[in-house]
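Reopening this ticket.

The earlier resolution said the output was attached, but the attachment link was broken on my side. Pasting everything inline this time so it's all in one place.
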Amino acid sequence: MLETLERHLLDTLSLQPTISEYDLLKMLRQQQCEGFSELEFSDSLSLFRSHFLLHHVLYRLQTQLWQQKAAYLEITPLSICLHPYLSNQAGLVEPDALRNYYLDWKNLSAMTGQALEDLLSQFWQKFYAAEQKAEALAVFSLQEPTDYATIRQRYRQLAGQHHPDRGGDTQTLQTINHAMTILSRYYRGFYAPDHEA
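Inline output:
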């Protein structure tokens, strides 16, 4: 089955060298390819299994094409691209944790509905945490790269400027304090506002 799917994907990518994963999954389902005909995009576990199978085969194909010096298959979250082989190209990076994950069948068989829910929950927690950090930096008019000393200095400036005793308002000061609490988790590990005043 895997060899047949590899040939099918290579034929598809030869005709359409750049394609999104979503479009590729839709096409495989429409063509009733083995492992994809039962794909339900609304079912997280079904979608994960199809996603895993697709990436397993894509990474196998990537390795084969590179070793044969036939092409370079680039696999990113946004697209799958088949490039001509170039001898001076960086090629396959070793070790590649993502490729290793998808090439190990145990990761597919170990994935239950609950395990997938936990994985997705961890992903969204990290996503929202990163978003929260960016918003907190914006409150301080800072951006990456920065450090804790710069953040603390900016906090003191803003806290002094917006303190109600100096003509500022409580809500703005609360926003500044909240931003400092978030940024301290990333740049210091903890934060006690009364220690920084």
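Reporter confirms the inline version is readable. The longest helix spans residues 113-139. The chain has two domains: 2-111, 117-196.
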